[in-house]
Amino acid sequence: MIYLTKEQFKDIIEHAKKEYPKEACGILAGKIVHGPQSTDHSPRSTVHGLEVKIVERVYKMQNVSEKPEVCYFMDPKEQLKVFKEIRQLGIEMLGIYHSHTNAPAYPSARDCEMAFYPEADYVIISLKDFNNLEVGTFKITEGNIKEEQIIVRKNILFVCIENSCRSQIAEAIVNNFYWQKFVAYSAGSKPSGIVNPLAIEVMKEIGIDISNQKSKGFDEVKGIEFDYVVTLGCGDVCPFYPAKKKFDLNIPDPKDKPIEFFRKVRDEIKNKIDEMIKEVEKDEVV
Prior knowledge:
Helix content: 25-40%
Order of helices and strands: EHEEHEHEEEEHEHEEH
Number of helices: 6
Largest sheet: 11 strands, mixed
CATH architecture of the largest domain: 3-Layer(aba) Sandwich
Radius of gyration: 21 Å
Distance between the termini: 24 Å
Structural class: alpha/beta
CATH topology of the largest domain: Cytidine Deaminase, domain 2
């Protein structure tokens, strides 16, 4: 099971289209999470204890094959350079992607011959129907092919004015409890420049560290396509940001309030996000 952000997935698709009629190829790198066998929503829990691959970097590689229209071969020098960078970053190669220009998204005999990394996921993008792309993911071990799951996570943006308390808490809750399906961001129209220390403290109480998060303006999320934008209860002064669907959680502002109020706000945000996610998932099923 391999997880990509929406931007990473779009990057791969655009690379495949750009290289057409040649086959595009590249490397997916990131971290592997081995989780417990539970299915609870504890921070960073995995699905049914499966090995989960979280992509952090996409490396577009040069196809130096003598027949790039029908197969791919990465430049060995470029490959070594990427492997060195991956080691320096403390991550690992998770998969290899390439495109098929006139064949289905399924490993060819040549793909099986060139599958030198049995632990890797092989992602194949078929451009056979250029307007209706097909993507498949596989494990290839000694010629045996096993289909794997690829998950493209949706983007959620939490917005408020200062991006100091409520939206910071909401961003962290989604990225810790619902990271398997969503990538959360937060921003404000007039960012304060700091994350409220009491917000940091009450999140630490439930095992989530937001001390490295920062108060951000909309410029820092520019160019990201959001599926959902969520306001936190700032009413008519809430900034506008485009998205496919919008929610308002109507959370009271804890600024200048005691820590007990921050705890109530934290718990209310978590409960309302739980309900929002249920609604989103229900809509997806329908």
